[in-house]
What does this fold into?
Amino acid sequence: MFTLGDRTFTSRLLTGTGKFSGTKHMLAALQASESELVTLALKRVSLNDPADDLFSPLKAAGFQLLPNTSGACTAEDAILAAHLAREAMGTPWLKLEIHPDPRYLMPDPIETLKAAKALAREGFIVLPYIHADPVLCKRLEDVGCAAVMPLAAPIGSNLGLETREFLRIIIEQAQVPVIVDAGIGAPSHAAAAMELGADAVLVNTAIATAADPVAMATAFKLAVIAGRMAYEAGLPGQHQQAQASSPLTDFLLST
Ligand SMILES: CC(=O)[C@@H](O)[C@H](O)COP(=O)(O)O
It folds into this structure.
């Protein structure tokens, strides 16, 4: 169980809704993942065109929706998108994404902090997508964000925990949940993030673009459970030299 904002979740796997080959496949994969919190771009809420509308089927399937501001390039864009999303989807939950750079989709830290401060003050439950910057995470926490979402690697890159050392520092210092987001390309990456002590991970591309998204969603579900279980069990320390597994066998040498 983990608490985020005013809610408690059983699943520590958050999922995205982009890049699936169709709504039916998306719903089947999300159900297999047992994810409870699903992010959705405001642009995928289409009240006029049912073929392009992800909101209605996701809502009907009972997922809690986490609208995101993907497409916003400035704080002003993101604040407008947040208001529209709250109207359209009826929720104050928000994944705040501001990435003006189309090549790497790197989040803009200055605009993100500015928008986060304004939106948190308005009562939004703000989950900002950011680079794995420990100082920025503390600043976002200070302005009232409900969690921080540092990236593992660029969105859609599937590169895994490229920011591992910085994630470790963020997790050590955070007073709010840390959700590792973006670039998680394999269940082993998700397990590694959870073993590090992340509260949750968000995965989209690796599930949506798998040859079998339902099987991949199941693999991610199990990896997140295993990673968290290992973290709670207490991972052993690492050593540069061998440590004998059965030290008592020394008796052969001493007789
Ligand atoms: C849908 C969403 O929010 C993505 O932008 C998110 O960051 C996931 O990234 P991946 O697609 O790399 O899993």
